[in-house]
TrEMBL record:
Stretches assigned to the Glycoside hydrolase family domain: 718-819
Gene3D superfamilies in the cross-refs: Galactose-binding domain-like, Glycosidases, Immunoglobulins
PROSITE patterns: GLYCOSYL_HYDROL_F2_2 (PS00608), PROKAR_LIPOPROTEIN (PS51257)
Residue ranges of every copy of the Glycoside hydrolase family 2 immunoglobulin-like beta-sandwich domain listed in the record: 197-298
Record-linked InterPro entries: Beta-gal/glucu_dom_sf (IPR036156), DUF4982 (IPR032311), Galactose-bd-like_sf (IPR008979), GH (IPR017853), GH2_Domain-Containing (IPR051913), Glyco_hydro2_dom5 (IPR040605), Glyco_hydro_2 (IPR006101), Glyco_hydro_2_AS (IPR023232)
This protein's UniProt keywords: Glycosidase, Hydrolase
Pfam families in the record: DUF4982, Glyco_hydro2_C5, Glyco_hydro_2, Glyco_hydro_2_C, Glyco_hydro_2_N
Family affiliation: Belongs to the glycosyl hydrolase 2 family.
Name this polypeptide is given: Glycoside hydrolase family 2 TIM barrel-domain containing protein
Any one GO molecular-function label of the UniProt entry: hydrolase activity
Domain of life according to the entry: Bacteria
PANTHER family: BETA-GALACTOSIDASE, BETA-MANNOSIDASE
Amino acid sequence: MKNLNFLKTLLILGLFAIFSCNEKSSDFNNRKVSFNSDWSFHLNDSLVDKDTIGTSTKWRTLDVPHDWSIEGKFDEKSPAGYGGGSLSGGLGWYKKTFKVAAEDSTKITSITFDGVYRNSEVWVNGHYLGKRPNGYIGFQYEITPYLNYGDKSNEIIVKVDNSKQPNSRWYSGSGIFRNVWIETTDKLHVGQWGTYITTPKVTAEKASVNIETTIQNQYTENKKAVITTTIFKEDKKITSVTQDITINANGNQTLKQSADVENPILWSDEKPELYTAVTEISLDDKIIDRYKTTFGIRDFKFDLNKGFILNGKQVKIKGVCMHHDLGSLGSAINTRAIERQLEILKEMGVNGIRTSHNPPAPELLQLCDKMGFIVMDEAFDMWKQNKTKYDYANDWDKWHKQDLIDQLLRDRNHASIFMWSIGNEIPEQWNETGTEIAKELAAITRQYDKTRPITAGMNPPVNMNIDAVTLQFEKKNVSINPLAGSGVLDLIGYNYAHQTFEHHLKNFPNTPFIATETTSGLQTRGYYDAVSDTIKKWPVSWDKKFVGGNPGNTVSAYDQVQTPWGSTHEATWKVIKKHDFLAGMYVWTGFDYIGEPTPYEWPSVSSYFGIVDLAGFPKDVYYMYQSEWTDKTVLHIFPHWNWKAGQTVDVWAYYNKADEVELFVNGKSVGKRSKKGDDLHVMWRIPFETGTLKAISRKDGKVVLEKEIKTAGNPSQLKLTADRSTIKADKNDLSFVTVDILDANGTIAPNANNEINFSLKGNGKIVGVCSGDPVSHESYKGNKHTALAGKCLVIVQSGDKSGRLELTASANGLKQSTIVITTE
């Protein structure tokens, strides 16, 4: 960094006063306030810039979290490649001016970044604070010695270098893409991530709660203090424990306290009940620090024969893997956007999330705590050996220990986390180097948390020839993956290899099972091949370029296309549901994500793996899972009913709680179908005729549900539907508005792909547009977008004033539509 002093003369872009114990501005900790607003940003986009900034640097004002890559154009020649979403990285700068109240000059001030992708370097008032290469883990710097107090301003500068590409196998995003906080404390305070709460004994009558608290004393003299930890259930005080301590000057001390909770209300995936521990430090009868920790009380184990046991009840983990991007919002984190994803998944019956393949945003874990998800918290996608040229393997030796420790300290109080994953498909898993690294990582993990098992996503745990797997097992000629056989792991994590699942107890008689990653089925929402009962493996091999496919890089939305290493959705679930000892699975993936557009390459730029598309619209297989994973009564028929006269069409039905489904075309029955054996759907092959397709499910001869699909006429009008018509006026809240293209009678036009234009009146802005089309190169940040299969999404973000937002959608030849969203 060169010549930072001249930057002090630049225009002050924003003022920010820091106040201690500002609970209204905090997240889970009343010492923290948001530091997201009024940053200046500059993207180095020429050789003239090189890696510096100067007096002529052009800045624009924005709020973080921010992802600059999502603002760019898709480019076939992007160094990130199609795996990285064909979007560019680069080198960016952020700066912010702020003031600190004079009365805080006797306190400790720190800045916390929840995640910056990647290679961040930070300066405050010209003083260099440090560098963190890993984009996914949070970090904190104390800035007290470098601050000006009172009327004099301060300046923070952040350099973010994501210029060396490729450094990821999927879309990473670029910039300060997670939240930033300022934390102000007394010199005697609970340290960062300073509590550790465990519940070693849990019964219906009583739970023991152990609390370890790390206290930091930054005074120059010893301090005698009183530490009180109070446990609350919502606003009700449950119990409290108090202890006197003496802490040496400039020292740390870990205090151990314990308490009992009578008749505890246990956390589960169905009823995610939470408690709060409030730790207060008092000096001379005055509370000088208050630190809140949310936790859950639950008892669990992974059993060799019974799978996952939660609070004494056998629970099948019905999970999905999730990447960190939020569709058209890119990697810039937004709590409501994550919540919407989880709501859609919960409606499907999902009860588990794998944070593939990195530490997630803290907000995801907070929401999983509140909403009831069984989380596999994953640390690394690679160790010392690279998967892409410039990835984290280059930083491994220097940083992996610190990054893993920080993840464990940050995340270990979350009720939703039930296992740690130390790696995904690590190349070193096949040799002794991998075993030694795994031993080191497992030792670190157990040092900081002994309450959860350790796993890794291995591909696969058993060396096998998939085409001859049955023969191999019959001859007992099966070799074990060195990492799987090392004894390091508490759970054997299977990535794919579903053919071997039923043999797990033979191969690993002492270690329970978890399917860390499964399936890799492929679909484009709304597109259907003519024949649905043939299974296609695209590509033919993971290491061979895909040749062939469908027009427009589409994939049939029938559950009939899989990768060669995976399976259809039905195939793996049939195995998992059959055996008690199979604890559960994490399907690849819950949502489509940007990048890795298997089986295609350019011009495809996003994935086909999701059960839900990039816009958040469910694909048809969503309802197979819903019929299997929930108690909801389900009847879902597809495809659409707009075809050529006489064309043969395969009609599928997913259903439950019924003996049979009868299908009608224009009132005439074309037959009844019932699931046989382990079937998960039924099918009719019938000629198309314009009109109405109707399905009726029956149980014991009585109607359970009826569903209709009608042939649509020409597209005529637009319909807007908001997921929430009232949102908060906080500059962060979002309303996700679905746009349906309808015919004159209100029937969705399933083949419509009109370009839709959007305009917004009021104190808010359009922050994302998307149709879920993996081949679309339209900007996610524009005011127009082309629909896919009659649907499109527009995302509206609130401003900071209460009022009305009027969103209008229009398209050539269609009747426009307006919807009102209230902000308050």
